[in-house]
């Protein structure tokens, strides 16, 4: 598939601007997570209180990109989703405490895009995906389908929250919380190809962070192996 990355925006604790990410990309390292919250001051205070940090991350990176178009489709992907909310619900069950309907409703995987739709008054087509290590690529394929059907632009957002300590031995692919939003439009600036192949070596960083490095340093290609799938990203135009 071919597409153009019209704009991108990313967030992690202490990393917000393009200059921040460019500096990180030149010397990537673990980012200290002190619980910092992304800025969502553009939302009413009552609505902000309903948002988890994962939801705030999506709103923070995606909202400025959506302003130009107003209403547009969105594809959200997260491998792990709202793990802190889920653990809180499970903990309540263990203690035989009543469950919070609000906690439950906001823990489901598509709750974040529901909140987005409500806050923006946008009824465009929206999709929430829960995929494995190549969830970003599956989100790109979904977005490519929407572009092929005539959408002038599509937002793709991938976000991962730091897992609770209880899950640390099971979730080892989130070095720190991060969110990346891509505003895609029709074009031939980038090409994404899928090939069958053998499993490659494990990456030092999750693939969305490697894509961020490519975008920040104007890298022309990158490759991502996941199981027997090989994804090739190439910048066909400067």
Overall average residue pLDDT: 90
CATH level-1 class: Alpha Beta
Main β-sheet: number of strands, strand sense, barrel status?
7 strands, mixed
Q: Which geometry do the CA atoms define?
A: globular
Order of helices and strands: EHHHEHHHEHEEHEE
Name the CATH superfamily classification.
Thiolase/Chalcone synthase
Rounded Rg: 18 Å
Helical residue percent band: 25-40%
Number of strands: 7
Overall SS class: alpha/beta
CATH topology assignment: Peroxisomal Thiolase, Chain A, domain 1
- Helix count equals 8
- Straight-line N-to-C gap: 17 Å
Strand content: 15-25%
What is the quaternary state of this protein? single chain
Give the tally of structural domains.
1
Brief summary:
With 238 residues, this protein is α/β, with parallel strands linked by helices. The chain is built from 8 helices and 7 strands.
Outline the structure in words.
- This protein has 238 residues and is an alpha/beta fold.
- It has helices at residues 18-26, 45-48, 53-66, 83-94, 101-107, 111-120, 135-148, 207-217, and strands at 2-11, 74-77, 126-129, 154-160, 178-196, 221-226, 229-235.
- Strand 6 (221-226) and strand 7 (229-235) form a beta hairpin.
- The longest helix is centred in the first third of the chain and has 14 residues, at 53-66.
- The mean pLDDT is 90.
